[in-house]
Amino acid sequence: MDTSPTELLVVGRVRRAHGIRGELVVETITDEPDAVFAPGRRVFAGTTTGAPARTPLELHVEQSSPFKGGLIVKFAELADRNEAETWRDRYLLLPAEELPPPDEDEVYVHDLPGMRVVRVSGEAVGEVIEVYELPQGLVLEVRRADGASTVMIPFDERTVTEVDGDARVITIDPLEGLLD
Q1: CATH 2.30.30.240 intervals, the chain
Q2: CATH number of 109-172: 2.30.30.240, 3.30.70.100, 2.30.30.100, 3.20.20.140?
Q3: Which residues are CB-contacts of 147 (< 8 A; sequence separation ≥ 6)?
Q4: DSSP 8-state secondary structure symbol assigned to residue 147
Q5: What is the Cα–Cα distance from 99 to 32, expressed in whole angstroms?
Q6: What percentage of the chain's residues is helix, strand, coil (to nearest 5)?
Q7: Coil, strand or helix: which one is 98?
Q8: CATH 2.40.30.60 spans which residues of the chain?
Q9: How far is residue 124's CA from residue 85's CA, in Å, rounded to a whole number?
Q10: 77-135 tens-digit pLDDT
Q11: DSSP β-ladder status, 116-119 and 124-134
Q12: What is the distance of C-alpha 56 from the center of its chain?
């Protein structure tokens, strides 16, 4: 019987091993880290690119605690530091149906590629082709409407004024010179 979920979403990224008992330092990529990484919950192993592992491995949370903007998580399946070290930079995934749906003005990060980007005036900027997670936040790579170039646009409250998930449109009010 195949019990693997159909759509898996990224909810965390393993930064490194912590301690000698197989704990991991996890950067959470979810609005619900306390619920997602609560003792007794399960997540699925992903690759370093965020794709599900060939055979999805379930990891079961034994305990988690806050640590430097993320969590230290102990999974039942990881017994020691040597095993935990092999998990560096891998993503942790959860079935989409186990996450609360995004609010009306929100979308999942994986939904951003393919969305149209327009200025508040309605002028077309282009289409999102990639999303980068940088220390300062998300950045969208947008193929310009003319198709000849791309531009990097910060996905932050100063730049993005509206996200319409149904229409698949991101409205921006860029700082002067950002699109030059």
Answers
A1: 109-172
A2: 2.30.30.240
A3: none
A4: S
A5: 8
A6: 10, 45, 45
A7: helix
A8: 8-98
A9: 46
A10: 999 999 999 999 898 999 888 887 777 767 888 789 999 999 999 999 999 999 887 77
A11: antiparallel
A12: 18
Q: What's the CA gap between 156 and 86, in Å, rounded?
A: 33
Say which amino acid occupies 137: G
Mean pLDDT taken over the chain = 88
pTM of the model: 0.67
Q: Give the torsion sign (CA, 51, 171, 33, 100).
A: negative
Q: What topology is assigned to 8-98 in CATH?
A: Elongation Factor Tu (Ef-tu); domain 3 (2.40.30)
Pairing of strands 169-172, 116-119: parallel
What is the C-alpha to C-alpha distance for residues 48 and 162, in angstroms, rounded to an integer? 31
pLDDT in tens, 15-41: 999 999 999 999 998 888 999 999 999
What gap in Å lies between CA 172 and CA 117, rounded to an integer?
A: 7
pLDDT band at 73 (very low <50, low <70, confident <90, very high): very high
